[in-house]
């Protein structure tokens, strides 16, 4: 059997001052030649900014068996919106959304991994209209997406829940460096020394883009509070309409429980050699405000002071509890 290169715990690689997973950094060169199609739609988040799905253990040879179409979405922050959008595009027909795993239906733009097809190869096989996803900051996004005014949807989540979720993900996803202690990871998160850089910069620059680009900016907490309302915002942004009962079906089909059970959205074909589920399950709690179970009082006070400094003058408002 062909052996997969050891991908465990490589150091982050800096590109234009942004730290990235080594294999994603290596994929950025070819990505700069990416040509979007007129009806492409890009979904963007900072890592760990959305619903989390569990990845059960599976043998390493699955990655070899499925390598012709595999595109590992190491960060599931866009999964919820990806499934919502695919259901919208399929007119609410659940059976059509079972045609392939979500990471095949919605390719991850900057994906790269030894022995696995690149994102550009996956996109070449994706029929129009295409849904794409990314976690890239604007400085690393292919300029063609901005020049051609490709429609985009951004989902932002409060920084405290993102930090906790990201720490657990760093522990179990071996493409990241070792995260160290929670306290040291939190300091790195605050300073933007984690993969994809600063959360503060990411959410603010994508927010500013709404003033010059066709971009819908949504909040994870709003989606949790009232998913039907947010789906209707998406429909309006896309210039589409669906019957009320179809919107209700989408809300039901994309609930945390349904997506966790759905093999087309729960990543059950991905290898445990990449993600150690004994360390931390990919599905944790899927709710807002869980940061309180991890932050100490001192960490929370330090984080709040740093947050106030970094977000001074920005009118973005996040809810840390529902």
Automatic annotation (TrEMBL):
Assigned EC number: 2.8.2.-
Compartments, as annotated in UniProt: Cytoplasm
Superkingdom of the organism of origin: Eukaryota
Major location (coarse): cytoplasm
Alphabetical keyword list: Cytoplasm, Transferase
Sulfotransferase domain mapped to chain residues: 77-314
Signal peptide from the UniProt entry: none
Membership in a protein family: Belongs to the sulfotransferase 1 family.
The protein, known as: Sulfotransferase
UniProt lineage: Eukaryota, Metazoa, Chordata, Craniata, Vertebrata
Gene (name only): LOC101985237
């Amino acid at each position: 059997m062909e052996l997969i290169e050891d991908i465990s715990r490589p150091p982050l690689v800096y590109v234009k001052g942004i730290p990235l997973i080594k294999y994603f950094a290596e994929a950025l060169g070819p990505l700069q030649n990416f040509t979007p199609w007129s009806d492409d739609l890009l979904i963007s988040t900072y890592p760990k900014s959305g619903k989390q799905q569990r990845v059960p253990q599976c043998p390493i040879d699955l990655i070899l068996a499925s390598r012709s179409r595999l595109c590992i979405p190491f960060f599931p922050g866009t999964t919820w919106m990806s499934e919502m959008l695919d259901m919208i595009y399929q007119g609410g027909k659940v059976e059509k959304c079972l045609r392939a795993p979500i990471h095949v239906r919605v390719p991850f733009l900057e994906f790269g991994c030894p022995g696995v097809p690149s994102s550009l190869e996956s996109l070449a096989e994706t029929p129009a209209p295409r849904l794409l996803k990314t976690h890239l900051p604007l400085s690393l996004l292919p300029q063609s997406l901005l020049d051609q005014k490709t429609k985009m949807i951004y989902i932002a989540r409060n920084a405290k829940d993102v930090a906790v979720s990201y720490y657990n993900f760093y522990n179990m996803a071996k493409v990241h460096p070792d995260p160290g202690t929670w306290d040291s990871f939190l300091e790195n998160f605050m300073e933007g020394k984690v993969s994809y850089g600063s959360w503060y910069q990411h959410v603010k620059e994508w927010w500013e883009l709404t003033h010059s680009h066709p971009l819908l900016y949504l909040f994870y907490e709003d989606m949790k509070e009232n998913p039907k309302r947010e789906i209707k915002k998406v429909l309006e942004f896309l210039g589409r309409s669906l019957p009320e009962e179809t919107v209700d079906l989408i809300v039901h089909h994309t609930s945390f429980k349904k997506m966790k059970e759905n093999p087309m959205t729960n990543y059950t074909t991905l290898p445990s050699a990449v993600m150690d589920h004994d360390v931390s399950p990919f599905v944790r709690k899927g709710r807002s405000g869980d940061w309180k179970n991890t932050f100490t009082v001192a960490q929370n006070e330090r984080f709040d002071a740093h947050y106030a400094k970094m977000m001074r003058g920005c009118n973005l408002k996040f809810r840390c509890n529902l």
